[in-house]
Amino acid sequence: MHTDSFDAIGLQRRDMRERELEAPEGVALGANLLVRSRTLFKTGDGSTAGGVWESEPGTARFEFLEFGELVYLISGRIVVTSDTGEQTILTPGTCASFPPGWTGTWVMEERSRKFAVSFHGAPVRSHAE
Hints:
This protein is mostly beta strands. 0% of the residues lie in helices and 53% in strands. The protein has a single domain, classed as Jelly Rolls, CATH 2.60.120.10.
């Protein structure tokens, strides 16, 4: 087995797949939202994957129902608000985790790029449930 290395910061847009954000990944709120992505690794059973995702400015709803995500923001600024009202501001160099069952909105205030690892798992119930 060997180690793969990649330059998530220097990855060029031409090396990424460009498309409009759509379900089940997320739903743009308002105008269509242009995103780019590139999967850099994926397990054989598809339960874990990692890669780079970039978005133009805009607002979107995300529902991590069947999977969770660990994020490291490379560039940009994203204001994340969960449906419970908790707000997190992601700036370059910050990390966030979104457990299975997380739902809410993301406001990409400027072009934003993240490195993310998604993983499948059972939804996590809140303490209030």
